[in-house]
Amino acid sequence: MDNIKKNANGQDAIIYNAETGTPWHSKGTAVNGPMTPEQAEIIYPFDYYKETLYRADGTPIKTHDAIVISDTKTIMGIGGVDRTIIQPKEVCEFAADLFDAGGCKVATAGALGLGEKIWILCHAPNYEYEPVKGLTHRQYVCVANAYDDSMSLISLYTDVCVVCQNTLNEAISGSPCVIKLRHTTNVKQRMAMATEVFKGYVRANADFQSAMVELGKHPITDELLHDFEVSMFGDLEKTEEGRSRSILQNKIDAFSKCVFAGKCATAVPGVSDTLYGMLQGYTEWSDFYSTVKGQKDKDGVTDRTNAILFGQASKDKVKALNLALVLAGR
User: Fewer CB within 10 Å of terminal CB in the chain, N or C?
Assistant: First the structure.
């Protein structure tokens, strides 16, 4: 379900850069090329305001107000009297502030439901990069806001092109960097602080992209692969015959299979022969094939997800990245 808002003038509340393709639902206004935030604002021909709530006996409620959208006069939700409303224009300005001057190029923008959520999606710096030829990554910066108290004002990094409710949900759940700001009285001051934090992440991500491209330039040699395996798993030649050697051999064999016959990134032609492919092979082995130790969840299944994101597997992948960069001479 796309859940795209229908504006009061009958227009579907989504605008998009036609160069990135038509949304799956085929709704919205197409623009040739990326837009500025000011140009994208036309898709929000409405504002939001507060209205006093009343009890059945006619006395006003002093603790909460209704949040109303201006075009249809529909109540979006109920918020505390101290809640600060961030207007669509301010959401667009916030998105622009996440970039250097003039650097914000909008891919899509729109509103959902009856107007209870809006978003603006921009091309990230170094929007498109290729660690190896044929393996293209596209990244976006998304700012979204809710007026029904279902979500804070958020800014996030994502590789999902947001065009509907489902893609927005996917972008939020899968983002490596999400900054959430509650709609409190000082939210606008905290928006300025969040801008600087987010810019720091953008700079770090640019360094990461550069590192991936560098790894993609370096072919794997037997010597480099051996040095990586020794550092990450252990030295097979120095391990005595027995169970420990068999376990180590199985790990190395499984890792090698992920590098040269993997089902994820290394399946792309040209990837497996590079240090980038070696790193992706280790990630695949770590995420899907390594043994995860620790607590069991309520169903008795090992909590692999926790290990991948926060536990030993996460630490090992950082070690693998640093090692690959050392082997590349970076």
Answer: N
